[in-house]
Amino acid sequence: MAVAAPHHVIVGNSIAGIEAAITLRNRDRSARITVISAEHPHPFARVSLMYVFCGQLSLKDTQFYPEDLYDRMRFERVTDRVVAVDAAQRTLRLMSGATLAFDTLLLAVGSTARKLPWSNAYADPALPRLVHHFVTLNDLHALDAAAKPGMSVAVIGGGLIGVEAAEVLQQRGLKTHFLIREPWYFPVALDAQESGMVAEHMRGHGVDCRTECSVQGLERAGSKVRLLGPELEVDLVVGAIGVEPATAFLAGSGIALNPETGGVETKDNLESTSCRGIFAAGDCAQVTWLDGSRRPEQLWYTSRDQGRIAAAAMLGDDVCYRRGTWYNSAKFFDVEYTTAGFLPPERTPAGSGWQTWFQRAPDRAVSQRIVVRNGAVKGFNGLGGRWNHNVWMQWIQQRRSLEWVLAHMNEARFDEEFTSPFTVLPSAALTEGA
Amino acid sequence: MQVGLLSTYRNPVQNRAAMAWLWALLLMAFYIDLYFFDHLDVAARLVHLPSKWTLYGLLYSVAMCVGGYFMLRKHGSSRYHQVRTAVLVAVQCTLGFLLPLALDFMGRPAYYFSYFFPLKYDILFPGTLKDMPVAVAIWFIAGSFVGVPLLVFYKGKRAYCSWICGCGGLAETFGDPWRHLSDKSDRAWRVEQISIYMVLALVFVMFGLVIGDAYAADGSAVRAVAQHTRSFYSFAIGSVFSGVLGTGLYPLMGTRVWCRFGCPMAAVLGLIQKFGRFRVTVKKDMCIACGNCSTYCEMGIDVRAYAMANQDFKRASCVGCGMCAHVCPRGVLRLETRDDAGPHEAIGTWTLDL
Fold first, then answer.
1. Domains, chain B, ranges and CATH?
2. A52: exposed, middle or buried (C-beta count within 10 Å: 0-12, 13-18, 19+)?
3. Where in chain A is the domain with CATH 3.50.50.60?
4. A276, A352, B3, B311: most buried, per Cβ within 10 A?
């Protein structure tokens, strides 16, 4: 008697889901693989939404696999939203009313924007048209339709989505107020000096960048919105205070969610802690970080890795997801940013064994920060230039000294040709603490 | 976000709208008139230039200067583009215009010193060489068979195609607003691999016939075939493909249609590049698949597929314009020349056919 091929169902076709699907197909040519997405029938790069908004790319340009990927890979495409999972019966219920049975399930549903904490932002009949986010394709379409040159907009939240939204809105000709609650922009990654430089750069582009600006609430003021606290009146508000796992539909399914983050609780192999045969990867998965803490990792690279690991686990491999050394990159307007290793987010005092080396070019938004502990480099931040994070991570593993690293910094550069080489400037300073 | 590229997809001229078709028709009409009629000779005499070809050189140089200015307004934050664009425009204005003009005024035959065999195939015809001053003949022979190949082996095809060549120069400056229109499909890649070597083969066949013709008796069959092949190549490839279509299709199919699908020089230099030192290096595990590199590649290379696969690559067609590296928001790509033989491309898991 022939054994029926297993049916793998993947919810979400962004990087985590599609990488898992491809991994499954490469390993198992006969399995039935279904990929469900309500957002778009084809995978696209979410990080490119800003480029689509400003007309630098078309949505088609952001599709990172060929149009016929599903055919080549024999994925069954379901363009629908999953509204409920029955873990015991191993079925999904779709918005259309259909049900779908699965043998193994991968939840790669990603995140949605975190809602602003004031209920009237979404309940008041007029405000929802004025309050926007910048995470999903629907967010993009809504903001695209609403944002007209000459309007004013407040972007609330000092993270990466905030700066992207501020950048493209300013560029479209809206008077843009970038409101950051913290004492400086992006404090989890940048220190006061770096962030000051970035803020200066943003102001140079015409953005009204305000730090320590705490918005207390929203109020309708005619056709405008009044922000309580800064007492600003604007035409539009973009809430960019972070993202959270889009797991609301899993409530009551028996799949354990973290009560604080909403992430799917997973074991080391990314299988749900409560339901066998159900896995999670990408933004919606609660995973173990390098420091031992457990939270979702909302990054492109790690989502891709998690998708591949989850697929191996779905096939029964004994695998374990481990985040390596931290690295990331971003771009704040024209200022490119690369980081690798560990830079203490909280200020560590002098005498703690930490030291910080920092220099900034006098005339341009270019800086480097290197933190050292007990004589070995631990972390790098580069702004305004291109750096190969792999080389930095290698130096961290090799426990190189600051002197050695400074003498070899040009080996980690990744700039275009003719860019002037790295040099230690007279203003470079090594201070105690980090 | 690349300030110069904003609204690329909102501007009708850049998106195959009616205005783009109008531009295409104008460009094609201009080239048809240039190659097949004499109106421009009349215009040239009005401005006291020796011939329509000198006038064409002037217009070409102006188009490159203006295009270069706008190109640098977009991408001038990059030193690579500053230097490259300045060299391209300077080569065109001097070797492509002023020097031939000066020779013309001195009553000497005008040579365009920036074009070599096999792109400018007739410079090495026995009949042409015979009348050429020895120094000029040495320049063209040494340039075609030693200088340019060596430069390309060590620095990549870009050294010619994106730093010197006039065709490439117009594409990189005047054509810059249309670079995103290049066809990125697998089908286009398959066509290009056949078409470009067919033109190259045609050049060699023609060359063989012309040399045969030099030794053939009057009225022999070789002479007739050689004549026909020469006129066919000159009409179909020289005028229609590289001129009328090569430039006329800028607003519809991107800027490097001729360089990619037809240019025999690009074909030869591409093969040298495959064995040479140049490659595009990918910073591992940093690509976010945004698509800027592939979109703005004028040769239609799917750069993103390599970046996502962490795969350094050498592609015969790459003209090393450097735009993929420049527009990458995560600094993932870099043009490099190194001493080792370099990468083999086996990209992506998705290429698996089941």
1. 3-182+260-267 (no CATH), 275-337 (3.30.70.20)
2. buried
3. 7-112+244-314, 120-241, 327-432
4. B311
Chain A residues touching B289 at Cβ < 8 A: 15, 45, 47-48, 62, 64, 300
In 3D space, the residue among A342, A404, A327, A406 whose CA is nearest the CA of residue A373 turns out to be: A342
Inform me whether the C-beta atom of residue A326 falls under 8 Å from chain B C-beta atoms: no
How many whole angstroms separate alpha carbon B104 and alpha carbon A300?
A: 61
B33: nearest Cα among B228, B248, B229: B248
CA distances from B59 to A96, B34, B63, B183, B229 (A): 62, 12, 6, 28, 30
With a cut of 80, say whether residue B36 has pLDDT above it: yes
Chain A interface includes B286 (CB < 8 A)? yes
CATH of domain A7-112+244-314: 3.50.50.60
B18 within 8 A of B12, measured Cβ to Cβ: yes
User: In A199-300, at which residue ranges do the beta strands (DSSP E only) sit?
Assistant: 208-210, 217-221, 224-228, 232-234, 236-239, 243-245, 264-265, 278-280, 285-288, 294-296
Which residues on B lie below 8 Å from A62 (Cβ)?
289-291
CATH superfamily of A120-241: FAD/NAD(P)-binding domain (3.50.50.60)
Other beta carbons within 10 angstroms of residue B86's beta carbon come to 12
Give the integer Cα–Cα distance in Å for B208 and B206. Answer: 5
Q: Searching chain B, which residue's CA lies closest to the CA of residue A324?
A: B285
Shortest alpha-carbon distance between residue A95 and chain B (Å): 30
**What is the DSSP-derived secondary structure letter of residue B145?**
I
CA-closest candidate to residue A281, choices A24, A32, A5, A95 = A24
pTM summary value:
0.94
Report the residue from B79, B283, B334 with minimal CB separation from A418.
Answer: B79
- B81 membership: H or E segment, kind and range: helix B79-93
Q: Between residues 119 and 138 of chain A, which touch chain B (CB distance below 8 Å)?
A: none
Q: What angle do CA B104, B108, B112 make, to 5 degrees?
A: 65
| A245-294 per-position pLDDT tens digit | 999 999 999 999 999 999 999 999 999 999 999 999 999 999 998 888 99
pLDDT cut 70: percent of chain A above it? 99
Amino acid at residue number A30: S
- The 3-state DSSP class for residue B194 equals helix
Tokens representing A108 are 């790669």
Spatial CA neighbour of A338 closest among A245, A420, A409, A433? A409
Work out the pLDDT band at B351, boundaries 50, 70, 90.
Answer: very low
Q: Strand order of the sheet with strand A264-265?
A: A264-265, A285-288, A294-296
Q: Is A176 on the interface with B (CB under 8 A)?
A: no
Q: What is the pLDDT of residues B272-330, one digit of tens each?
A: 999 999 999 999 999 999 999 999 999 999 999 999 999 999 999 999 999 999 999 99
Q: Rounded to an integer, what distance in angstroms lies between the CA atom of residue B297 and that of residue B301?
A: 6
The verdict on a CB contact (< 8 Å) between A334 and B77 is yes
The domain defined by A327-432 folds into: FAD/NAD(P)-binding domain (3.50.50)
- Who among B79, B326, B353 is closest to A72 (CB)? B353
Residues shown for chain B: 354
Helices (H), A356-431: 389-397, 402-408
Alpha carbons A114 and A162: distance in angstroms, whole number? 12
Q: Within the 43-82 window of chain B, which residues sit less than 8 Å (CB to CB) from chain A?
A: 77-80, 82
- The C-alpha atoms of residue B224 and residue B80 are separated, in whole angstroms, by 49
Under 8 Å between Cβ of A213 and A179: yes
Output the CA angle A189-A412-B338, nearest 5 degrees: 150
